[in-house]
Automatic annotation (TrEMBL):
GO terms for biological process: cobalamin biosynthetic process; methylation. Transmembrane segments: none annotated. Its EC number is 2.1.1.131. The gene is cobJ. It comes from Variovorax beijingensis. InterPro entries: 4pyrrol_Mease, 4pyrrol_Methylase_sf, 4pyrrole_Mease_sub1, 4pyrrole_Mease_sub2, Cbl_synth_CobJ/CibH_dom, Precorrin_MeTrfase. The keyword Transferase applies. Keywords: Cobalamin biosynthesis, Methyltransferase, S-adenosyl-L-methionine, Transferase. Pfam families: TP_methylase. This is Precorrin-3B C(17)-methyltransferase.
Length: 326
């Protein structure tokens, strides 16, 4: 009998938010390995199983343990909160496996079972903050140099992403969140909405709405995710909402009619093709590539490449948009 390693994301904490596959993977496991807090969250599913509890910093040990058990022909479930691949055990486990000479063709099967990550869980609790482009950044500098983290914070703050901050603060790491706030305030308004969500879907769940100017004063810890809105995110009736970015296209006050100059089912007039046409027209009227680059905050060589490309056929521009959005 050959062994198996399942990397199981158990979701934010409550069984209602665990997938059927995650429940099945735990049910079929002989051995369950995980950080003690997560073991507690699934305690009722572990009867008759060998359980290996590990501390927070013993990640590689956990992966090595899992491999040893699988080599004995056992089915091992390595559990992570949220999604096992999001700041979780999936990466370190594959690294340990590769180092041991494992390949996907080997005797030992490996499965990653996806789960709802903290970003999904926290977003659902506060409203709909992720309706436009978003990213996550971990403030943990245990394995990542601070300049790397700071550069990412600076870049995404400037690029107006909605951002989820994982690992925002711990007993020993208290200043990272203050630094993140400083970097964000260089690009975003002080009244940008921020939601601080602690222990989503767990017993001590707590949600606090604040603003970028005050976020570092909030009660933030190891079990908190901080969601920072983009420049269009708003809070209404206690719900944090980010518009889909159609504000320029549909007039919500006017029954959702399309604004003048825009067509339903087509890219915006400032979408790629419309924008290229405008760019060419401005260039023809004397605007330099450098001036256009500054105006649109894009690299000059990109503007030059767009201007040098042959203009799209009229028919391509007029073709109906094929992609459908939910
Ligand atoms: N694999 C996990 C993330 C592990 S990193 C996932 O996909 O969610 C640990 C960080 O995740 C915590 O510091 C916190 O920022 C976030 N987190 C995990 N569970 C959470 C929960 N129930 N509520 C709020 N944040 C949570």
């Amino acid at each position: 009998m050959s062994g198996k390693i399942s990397l199981v994301g158990i979701g934010p904490g409550h069984h209602d938010h665990m997938t059927g596959r995650a429940l099945a993977a735990i049910a079929e496991a002989d051995v369950v390995v995980g950080y003690s807090t997560y073991i507690k969250l699934v305690a009722d599913l572990l009867e008759g199983k060998e359980v290996i509890r590990k501390g927070m910093t013993e990640e590689l040990d956990r992966a090595v343990n899992a491999l040893e058990c699988a080599r004995e022909g056992k089915k091992v479930a390595l559990i992570s909160s949220g999604d096992a691949g999001v700041y979780g055990m999936a990466g370190p486990t594959y690294e340990v496996l590769f180092q041991a000479g494992w390949t996907p063709e080997s005797e030992i099967a490996v499965e990653v079972v996806p789960g709802a990550s903290a970003i999904n869980a926290c977003a659902a609790l506060v409203g709909a903050p992720l309706t436009h482009d978003f990213c996550s950044i971990s403030l943990s500098d245990l394995l990542t140099p601070w300049p790397v983290i700071a550069r990412r914070l600076d870049a995404v703050a400037a690029a107006d992403f909605v951002v989820a901050l994982y690992n925002p603060k711990s007993g020993r790491r208290t200043q990272q969140i203050v630094q993140a706030q400083q970097l964000f305030l260089r690009h975003r308004r002080p009244d940008t909405p921020v939601a601080v969500v602690k222990s989503a879907y767990r017993r001590r769940e707590r949600i606090e709405f604040t603003t970028l100017a005050h976020m570092s004063e909030c009660d933030i810890g190891m079990l908190t995710t901080v969601l920072i809105g983009n420049s269009h995110t708003f809070v209404q009736h206690g719900l944090m909402v980010t518009p889909r970015g159609y504000a320029n296209k549909y007039d919500l006050d006017d029954g959702g009619n399309t604004r003048s100059g825009e067509k339903p089912g087509r890219s915006l007039s400032t979408g790629l093709l419309g924008w290229m046409a405008d760019l060419r027209a401005d260039h023809a009227e004397g605007a330099s590539a450098a001036a256009l680059a500054a105006q649109h905050r894009l690299p000059v060589d990109y503007i030059e490449a767009v201007l040098a490309a042959p203009a799209e056929e009229e028919s391509a521009a007029a073709a109906p948009l094929e992609e459908a959005q939910e």
